[in-house]
Amino acid sequence: MKVSVEANENILGTLVLPLWEGSEAVAEGSEGGMHRELKHQIENILQAGDFKAKVGTTMTLAGTEGGKALLIGLGKVEDADSQSMRECGAKVVSARGKIHGHNLSVRFHDIDDAHMAAFVEGMLLRDYAYDQYKSKDDEDDSDKVLEVRVTCEEKGVEALRNATTLSQAITTGVHLARDLGNAPPNDLYPMEFARQAMEFGEDHSNVYVKVINYDEARTLGMGGLVGVGMGSYRKPCMVIFEINGDKQGPAPCIVGKGITFDTGGISIKPSPSMDEMKYDMHGSATTFGLMQALVASGHKEKVVAVTCMAENMPSSNAQRPGDVIKTYSGKTVEVLNTDAEGRLVLADGLWYAGTHLNPSYIIDLATLTGAVVVALGHEATGLWSNDDELLENIKAAGEYCGEIAWPMPLFKAFEKEVKDSKIADVRNLGAGRWGGSNTAAAFLKQFVPEVDGQQIPWAHMDIAGTAWGAKTNKLVKTGATGIHVRTLHHLITGL
């Protein structure tokens, strides 16, 4: 989508007219350049009550010499917030059909700057489809870029233009994360992810990318990463990103779980919906997408990231239930279930981040547990932290972006459960079926290094319910959501 922001009165293509609930006329000042026949038709519909402008409702008008229009309801003024405006913008894109063409003119009037910006952001986020593998005929114009001209009152043009420029930059990261999440696992495997990351680094002078391959991981003693990935002929790797590495001092560090396909290993999953296990690398997808968003938006400070890439497959070489592995930290883990694999690769990633990258704080993202979906559904990401300030900052950033991160407990009892192994330092399962997302977080906490006797500030975000399958997420049609690229961008940059 190409978006321009103007203060002129031209209408190119289909008029998109956002309306508050209760509107009975086209607002004075917004009718300039509108054909009188179209204006008359809109006002007749509003006065007859045929379009009440309830939030998210749409109506297409066509067939008059005045041109075409798409009416979009914003609901009541007093109920509007940034998320509802994003969803209204997204609804314009989802409601658009061939009749509307590839040129839209969005006309804002009597809408504040923040709400206009959120509306445009919603359009940008929703303008996404993963169709690389679909055949197209000669008449298919689905690849044609949607061009949107946004007009508003003169006083709002500069603020809206700046906000739109930022949203366009961040959206490139969200869409990259979705592309990575949606990619079929036969084409996106650990070293292919690494190749794309290396290409990203080569394309940007302020980005450095390092890859630790399988043999190097074995030499370094990364038993968590090696153990999970050794059952596949597509071997695991760890990818490290560094943006603006010339800047000195501690930097935010993001760690992503990247299981490009998760069969469960020897503890194999049931076959229904196993195809969705390509999304098990969405923590790494979000991490890569965040790096793209930071570069595109011109962030000048240092940020580092680690992605832990593996494919979890059953084979004669695969890790077994009952194995004991030695992680990069030196701690040993009793593997009771090979389908609790994400925490094993993250154990090595967290320790590497804390001991090599000088983090000011560490945030890991992982599609880690089905238990978090039981607790929070597809409405929110689970959030755990050893630092109250970091937790509150992430929660606030999520609320600002409309991506809820809900605080969850890190009780000592959960840590006791994962330490209750008779033959190793920790076990990769809790003692029973209850609180599984909490014991998983407690496991990860064991691999956050200390500096001067204090653990590095750390937070864990379990995105198993929000990375895909979130049918109530109106900003994406289907598949990978690109969740928390925007949250973390806002947390890190304040923008």
Question: What's this, in brief?
Answer:
The protein is of the alpha/beta class and 495 residues long. It has helices at 36-48, 82-95, 113-126, 157-182, 190-203, 214-220, 223-229, 282-296, 342-356, 371-376, 388-401, 412-418, 436-445, 485-493, and strands spanning 2-6, 14-19, 58-61, 69-73, 103-107, 147-151, 207-212, 237-243, 251-262, 303-312, 324-326, 332-334, 359-366, 381-385, 405-407, 426-427, 450-451, 454-455, 458-462.
List the helices and strands and how they pair.
Elements: E1 2-6, E2 14-19, H1 36-48, E3 58-61, E4 69-73, H2 82-95, E5 103-107, H3 113-126, E6 147-151, H4 157-182, H5 190-203, E7 207-212, H6 214-220, H7 223-229, E8 237-243, E9 251-262, H8 282-296, E10 303-312, E11 324-326, E12 332-334, H9 342-356, E13 359-366, H10 371-376, E14 381-385, H11 388-401, E15 405-407, H12 412-418, E16 426-427, H13 436-445, E17 450-451, E18 454-455, E19 458-462, H14 485-493
Parallel strand pairs: 1-6, 2-4, 2-5, 5-6, 9-10, 9-13, 12-16, 13-19, 14-15
Antiparallel strand pairs: 3-4, 7-8, 8-10, 11-12, 14-19, 17-18
* Strand portion: 15-25%
Structural class by secondary-structure content = alpha/beta
**What proportion of the residues is helical, as a percent range?**
25-40%
- The third-level CATH topology of the largest domain is Aminopeptidase
- At CATH level 2, the architecture of the largest domain is 3-Layer(aba) Sandwich
Global morphology: elongated
Q: What separation lies between the terminal Cα atoms?
A: 21 Å
Task: Kindly give the count of domains.
Answer: 2
The CATH class assignment of the largest domain is Alpha Beta
Report the radius of gyration as a whole number of Å.
Answer: 24 Å
Global mean pLDDT: 96
Helical segment count: 14
